[in-house]
Specification:
globular
């Protein structure tokens, strides 16, 4: 009868753990931390636009790994908000 050995290693990761996915997790984390540091200085419309960019665009980019770069279309629209 084979013996069952206890695995003392770390729990397996749910996500792929390669260099690209590490970069994407770090990018999302950095964007979120930067947002938290400056959000009180942003007007409400800008705050919501940046929050949506992080929560929807960056999070989706990180998980789906479809685009080769972070999506920036929503950030382009920030210049329109700033000029108003």
């Amino acid at each position: 009868m084979p013996s069952i050995e206890k695995d003392d290693g770390d729990m397996p990761s749910i996500e792929k753990d390669d260099g690209e996915m590490s970069y994407r997790r770090g990018f999302e984390h950095g964007a979120l931390e930067t947002f938290h540091a400056v959000e009180r200085f942003l007007d409400p419309a800008m705050r919501e636009a940046v929050r949506a960019w992080i929560e929807q665009d960056i999070h989706g980019w990180r998980l789906k790994a479809i685009l080769g770069h972070p999506p920036t279309w929503r950030l382009v629209n920030l210049s329109v908000l700033k000029s108003n």
